[in-house]
Amino acid sequence: MAARKMATKVLNNKTCKQITDLVYAYLNDRLKPAVKRDFQQHLRICPDCVSFLNTYKKTVGMTRSLRAEDMPSKVRENILDFLRRRIRKTRASA
Amino acid sequence: MEIISNSVSVDRREPMPAYQSMRELGSSVESEQAEATSSEFEPTLGNTAVAKASYKSKEDESELVRRLKARDEQALEIIFNLYSAKLYNVAHRILGEVADSEEVVQDVFWTAYRKAQSFRGNSQLSTWLYRLTVNAALGKIRRSKKKKEVEYEEYLPKFQKDGHHVVRPVVDWSDTLDERYANQEIQQLLKDTLDQLKPVDKSIIVLSDLEGMSDKEIALTVGLTVSAVKTRLHRARLFLRGKLAAHLGHCPR
After folding, report:
1. What would the pLDDT profile of B148-195 be if each residue is shown by its tens digit?
2. Buried b (16+ CB within 10 A) or exposed e, B184-195
3. Closest A-chain CA to B245
4. Could you tell me if A94 lies within 8 Å of chain B, comparing CB atoms?
């Protein structure tokens, strides 16, 4: 019972470190409702964690916006040529 | 030219085929090119009209895999058309070089053709192909002398004993980045920072934030537990955040 009370107390008084550890689950909406409430409660009183969360989200958003390099058509042809040659060689030696 | 040689050490889900070096496989590429132009044999592969088809169901995929295991060239072409561009993206994002990425994708499809028997069907075909790609790219990085990775610790958040941030206030630079840098500069800055991640972590970031895979799919691809993927992904993001903060002149911690 005492252990449960202690656990509840810790959850209701989250530290910045705990918030940092929970950011991943929070952004994926995987926190249990009670934990999520504590998380959001902490944000209401801690501008440092708001800044941290904003910059974390910005980092993820920027990473996600990195453009992919399309496969050049020359590369596609090179690979197909390679595969053709290999397959033919394999068949010839079989 | 170098061909895939090692499976990544963390991959324990499905045995990787024993790759061979190009020398073991036979002649050099140059001599093969001459051979290709002089032959009367016109292989199916590359005749894209033959194999534009896609497949939608698991049954279709099973059939495609069965055909691949029977060394059906059209099946290889269908798979190539379906996945080569995506696999190239992954390879290029991990390696950053066109030539290296080409070599990886080439090796992946050649391996898929030769070693299709080693695909047991425990995962989707796409997961197997992604796994071959990531393993080949990581193998290339391991053998490369251009290692840029740095220690994460000094760019991760640091806390006092009571759990509060050591350096306060934490600066919110999220709105200033777009003002200070043109889009291209931000992209380059991020790419340079991604290059400093541990290769496995970089792969996980690529598969998650760039390819949009779920944590579970990533776990199957890189051969780690879902929990380990989450931990590594979070830590890598924290590192990237710290590096960006430092670049902007703020405390990374």
Report:
1. 668 899 999 999 888 888 888 889 999 888 777 777 888 888 889 998
2. eebeebbeebbb
3. A55
4. no
pLDDT of residue A12: 47
* Domain match, B126 and B164 both: no
Whether the CB of B237 is below 8 Å from some CB of chain A: the reply is yes
Q: Sort B36 into a burial class: Cβ within 10 Å, 0-12 / 13-18 / 19+.
A: middle
The reply to whether residue B209 touches residue A82, judged by beta carbons under 8 angstroms, is no
Q: How distant is the Cα of B149 from the closest Cα of chain A, in angstroms?
A: 18
In a domain, B29, yes or no: yes
- Residue-level pLDDT at B53: 45
- Which parts of B23-124 are beta strand (E)? none
Distance CA B128, CA B118 (A): 10
Contact B80 A66 (CB under 8 A): no
pLDDT at position B31: 34
Distance between CA atoms of residues B227 and B216, nearest Å? 9
The domain in which residue B82 lies consists of 22-143
Out of B110, B143, B176, pick the residue that ends a domain.
Answer: B143
In angstroms, the CA B104 to CA B83 distance is 13
How far off is chain A from B170, nearest CA to CA, in Å? 5
CB pairs below 8 Å between A and B: how many?
Answer: 157
pLDDT in tens, B41-60: 334 554 444 344 455 566 68
Measured in angstroms, the CA of A1 and the nearest CA of chain B are apart by 24
Range of lowest pLDDT (A16-30, B47-61, B96-110, B125-139): B47-61
Tell me the chain A residues in contact with residue B205 when contact means C-beta distances shorter than 8 Å. 63
Q: Which of B:117-156 have CB within 8 Å of A? A: none
Q: What is the pTM of this model?
A: 0.77
